[in-house]
Amino acid sequence: MSHSTFDLVGVGNPIMDLLAHVPESFLTQHVPGDKGGMVLVDDADLAGLVRTLDGALAIAPGGSAANTILSAAQLGLRTSYVGKVGSDPTAAQYLEFVAAAGTDSSHVKRATLPHGRCLSLVTPDGQRTMRTHLGAAMTLSPAEISPADFQGARHAHIEGYLLFNPALAEQVITSARAAGCTISIDLASFEVVKAARDWIFAQLRLGVDIVFANEDEASALFDRTDDYANFARELAAFGGIAAVKLGKDGAWLAQRDTLHRVAPVTVSRVVDTTGAGDAWAAGFLYGHLRGASLAHAGAVASILGAECVQHLGAAIPHVRWPQVRGAALPHVSA
């Protein structure tokens, strides 16, 4: 660890989140498609949805890998981020959030385009349905990624949304391997998995150290319904660690012949599930990279996931981090 510059580098789409509470009827009237998913839209469609909202919008940094990296930095990991930002005030604000978390942005690419935005529509049950315009992030090209972006990092965390661009995803994971990083992939959404199943299985055969999936993503990957423990076992059979997240019911972790059920941390009220899986991954990666056992890394993951759902947006408020770090620390010093 002393020989690396960064513990963790994340690669993904740096998106500014626009968050709004909406009734179930809003989805029925204005948002075709499955509840709880993510659909790419153009800027005009996103702007039209924003205009139909009655309440105020909250603004926070987003993007799956960025959410994970920024939370991991708050826990104490040395982090870096790779993605493509725009050239507008939203991009400048986004980079301010990154810097405030203590995350390195020297490998962030830039475009003379608007910054990407995601409208996260949160229903009373805390579920979020997302509509995303990638903006500048969409123009990140394979030619802009090289092993230099990962030099000196121990571990690379790749968000599944990159898999919508197979050539880019291939260049990212190849470059990370060339730089000597261990690798995790968060499958991100069932839409991603359906679009990239063959690529995902090909990478699993080549070797992926950690795979994060929720119930819907695991079902989409194996194209069947089953006990989620079985999905965890099957993913781990490729040689890495499998984390199958079950939301409020905890998670299954598998590695080689070990299968572990992660108990959930219960909360009195779920405000918003946006970014909860990303926070969960941050907690797990923190524990794992600090040398914690599978069970202890899973316990830290549960702490962060539970904390995240009690707040609007993916970012855990600054005032809560001392308590979160205090709860996590015993699991990495055990």
From TrEMBL:
Q: Which InterPro entries match?
A: Carb_kinase_PfkB-like (IPR052700), Carboh/pur_kinase_PfkB_CS (IPR002173), PfkB_dom (IPR011611), Ribo/fructo_kinase (IPR002139), Ribokinase-like (IPR029056)
Q: Does the keyword Transferase apply?
A: yes
Q: Does the keyword Cell cycle apply?
A: no
Q: Which GO terms describe its molecular function?
A: kinase activity
Family designation: Belongs to the carbohydrate kinase PfkB family.
Show the taxonomic lineage: Bacteria, Pseudomonadati, Verrucomicrobiota, Opitutia, Opitutales
The molecule here is called Adenosine kinase
Domain of life where this protein originates: Bacteria
Report keywords, A-Z: Kinase, Transferase
* SUPFAM superfamilies (UniProt xref): Ribokinase-like
Organism listed in the record: Horticoccus luteus
Tell me which residues make up the Carbohydrate kinase PfkB domain: 59-317
